C-alpha cells in the first residue's frame, strides 16, 4: 500500500517570534538539523518517501533548501496562510486515491520506533483515520500549545478510539487537572475521504480552516482512532518547547550521519 506524505509549511510562525522575523520557522535549527529536515526524516525513517510540502511563496529560503537537499520532494504553494486544511487542498491531486500522512513539522518525537511505524499498525488493522496522541502531565503543559484535549477508549495496548476532542483556543495555555490528559500530537494517517470533509468545515474566527473541527467530526462518527505514542515529544512551534528540544538534543543525535546520508538520497 502506497502512502503519500504531506507536510504543511505555509504559516508565519507567530508563536516563535522574534526567532521567525527573518527566518522561516521550518528553517530554524533544533539540535543537529533544521525543523523541516526532522519532518522529512520522520517520514523517510518509516519508508514513506513520496512527499509533498505546501509552503508560502514568500518562503524563498525554504523553497531553495528543499529543492537543493530533497529534490524528490514535491512543492506546492499556498497563496495565503488560510489554515492547514486549506494547505492540504493544494496537494489534492498529488494525494489522488492514496492514504496519506498529514504531519505538522513543528512537532518532534524522539523514540526508538519511528513516529509513523507506531501509527501504521493501527491504521492497517482497523482501516480508520489514525492519529498520534501523547499523555501530557501537568508539569509539562507550559511546553505545549493548545491543540485540544481528547477523550479515549483504549482498545488494545496503545491502540485507542477517540471519542471526543475539545475546542482549540489559540494563544491560551492548555488547562488540565493534576492527573494530566491526552492530546493529539504530530499528525495522522488518513483515508482519502478525509478530503471530502473539508468542504463542510467553516473557517474559524481567524478566517482559517483548522483541522480540529474536522477531527471532531470524525470522532463524533466514531471514525477516528489513535495510538498512544512512546517516546519524548516536543512542540517546536512553542518557544519554551523549542528551547527544551534544543537543550535535550544538545548532546544527543537521533540519527547517525551515515544513516542521514542514506535517507536523504532516497526518492519515490
Using brief descriptors, characterize the structure shown:
268 residues; Spore Coat Polysaccharide Biosynthesis Protein SpsA, Chain A; five-stranded mixed beta barrel; two-stranded antiparallel ribbon
3D architecture notes:
The chain has 268 residues and is α/β, with parallel strands linked by helices. It has a single domain (4-251), classed as Spore Coat Polysaccharide Biosynthesis Protein SpsA, Chain A (Alpha-Beta Complex). 28% of the residues lie in helices and 26% in strands. The chain contains 9 helices and 13 strands. The chain is globular. The model has no long low-confidence stretch (mean pLDDT 88).
Summarize the structure.
28% of the residues lie in helices and 26% in strands.
Q: Choose one word for the global shape.
A: globular
CATH class: Alpha Beta
End-to-end separation in angstroms reads: 14 Å
What name does CATH use for the topology?
A: Spore Coat Polysaccharide Biosynthesis Protein SpsA, Chain A
- Roughly what is the average pLDDT, rounded to an integer? 88
The tally of helices reads 9
Helical residue percent band: 25-40%
The CATH homologous superfamily is named Spore Coat Polysaccharide Biosynthesis Protein SpsA, Chain A
Named at the architecture level, the CATH assignment is: Alpha-Beta Complex
- Unreliable residue runs: none
Count of discrete domains: 1
Provide the structure class.
Answer: alpha/beta
The percent range for strand residues is 25-35%
- Give me the strand/helix succession: EEEHEHEHHEEHEEEEHHEEHH
Largest sheet data: 5 strands, mixed, barrel
Number of strands: 13
Query: Radius of gyration over alpha carbons?
Result: 17 Å
Largest beta sheet: what is the strand line-up? Answer: 8-11-9-10-12
